[in-house]
Amino acid sequence: MKHIVKILSLLVAISAFWIGLLQAAIVPRSYTWLLPIYFVVSLGCYGLLMVGIGLMQFPTCPQEAVLLQQDIAEAKDFFKHKGVDVGSD
Amino acid sequence: MADQNETKGEEGKHKYSIIVPTYNERLNIALIVYLIFKHLRDVDFEIIVVDDGSPDGTQEIVKQLQHLYGEDRILLRARAKKLGLGTAYIHGLKHATGDFVVIMDADLSHHPKYLPSFIKKQLETNASIVTGTRYVKGGGVHGWNLMRKLTSRGANVLAQTLLWPGVSDLTGSFRLYKKSVLEDVISSCVSKGYVFQMEMIVRATRKGYHIEEVPITFVDRVFGTSKLGGSEIVEYLKGLVYLLLTT
User: Fold this and answer.
1) Measured between CB atoms, does B135 come within 8 Å of chain A?
2) CB neighbours (10 Å) of residue B120?
3) Which residues cross the membrane (chain A) (predicted)?
């Protein structure tokens, strides 16, 4: 099944639930009408939260830059006498 | 211990074709080749350099490397001009004689020291694809400012929400594929640039292939220029919508 079909089915199911809620009037209708807005807003907030958390926890590796420079020096040294031109551009 | 020995033995039965697309990587290509040989001592592999007619003499350096390491270990399969990443992989695939294919960048943002962990993960899990992820513990990025990290995070959350891709790093291009799997996935991809990388992994997920991840560190562009601007963001969003609708 294509992914978009899955997403649309999910939306249809949620919409059906919402319409059912409207008709059954278990929850006062004035609240039910606003539910889609609440849903979209909370989805947006959740997204922003995930971005924020991800940003705070973003894994960095400053030591890798140092290790890389060491590797580059090692490689250049190796090639110096092997006929491979690794001088600077 | 027994497991380790088994893995070591199995390594000997496999050959890894490492495809490295290059454009003006005169300096980096030699460094990358050295590091690959350093970290894959007991592994049967070949390096396929797909150079798109670099004007800086990259191919000359590759020929010098061939002289040093052997033309059976380093294959130069060049093209006349810049023809794009996807076609570079396809071109490289045609000449690959291994049963596994690794794709990686030539600019040293992908460090060959992770190759053994890719191979080990694949042998342990028999995964069809092992993809490197920068976004988990043990992985990481160096050289990105706050704006760049924010864009990356935002892009990732958006992609996760819309696509449910099954991997944590969608745009990463440091991957190990079973050769047959790469051939299958690449034939159904049409995007360009890094959206192409996303399309590959998403299509692979949709097709039900077993995908594993290993943490990698990514040091951004030692030499050369980086490319992420407004037009890239637009391309990314267009790519997301395309993948949402067609996968």
Assistant:
1) yes
2) 16
3) 34-55
Query: What's the token pair of residue B217?
Result: 């560190």
Phi/psi at B230 (5° precision): -60, -40
What does the domain layout of chain B look like in residue ranges?
Answer: 16-245
Q: What is the pTM of this model?
A: 0.87
Q: Which of A54, A59, A60 sits opposite B157 (nearest CB)?
A: A54
Chain B residues close to A2, C-beta within 8 Å: 246-247
State whether CATH 3.90.550.10 applies to domain B16-245: yes
Q: Is the dihedral of CA A81, B53, B82, B200 positive or negative?
A: negative
Q: What residues in A contact B64, CB-CB < 8 Å?
A: 83-85
Tens-place pLDDT, residues B135-170:
998 999 988 888 888 988 999 999 999 999 989 998
| Burial of A89 (C-beta count, 10 Å sphere; 0-12/13-18/19+) | exposed
Put simply, whether B242 touches A (Cβ < 8 Å) is no
Closest partner residue to B61 (CB to CB) among A3, A75, A85 is: A85
Give pLDDT tens digits for B35-91: 999 999 989 999 999 999 999 999 999 999 999 999 999 999 999 888 888 889 999
Contact A55 B137 (CB under 8 A): no
B12/B221 Cα distance (integer angstroms): 33
- DSSP label at residue B79: B
Report d(CA B197, CA B133) in Å as an integer: 13
Residue B222: how many CB atoms within 10 A of its CB?
16
ipTM confidence score: 0.81
Question: Is the CB of residue B134 less than 8 Å from the CB of residue B217?
Answer: yes
